[in-house]
Write a structure and sequence with these properties.
The chain is built from two helices and four strands; from the N terminus they run H-E-E-E-E-H. With about 80 residues, it is α+β, with helices and mostly antiparallel strands. It has a domain of about 45 residues. It has a four-stranded antiparallel sheet with strand order 1-2-3-4. The radius of gyration is 12 Å and the shape is globular. The termini are far apart. The mean pLDDT is about 85. It binds zinc ion.
Length: about 80
């Protein structure tokens, strides 16, 4: 898990990322809530976080903007 997180930060060395759980506002990056960093068959990036406090799962895209965007927002066009 630690190694995976380090890899994620090395990919975006100048970026300080904070992601807050939409249910309980837990900060996910610093609370060991990272699950996986994968690409789907279309080449879209999916960063999965599962909140270490409440268990809420979020699927983010780190590629489309300087800040992570939730896939649920991308798909709804927000
Ligand atoms: Zn939470």
């Amino acid at each position: 898990m630690i190694r995976t997180l380090k890899k994620l930060f090395q990919k975006k060395p100048k970026q300080t990322t904070f992601i807050y759980c939409e249910k309980c506002r837990n900060e996910l990056c610093s609370s060991d809530s990272f699950v996986s960093d994968t690409y789907d068959e279309k080449g879209d990036n999916h960063i999965l976080y599962k909140c270490s406090k409440c268990g809420h799962v979020c699927d983010y895209n780190f590629d489309v903007a300087p800040v992570p965007i939730k896939w649920s927002e991308l798909r709804s066009g927000a």
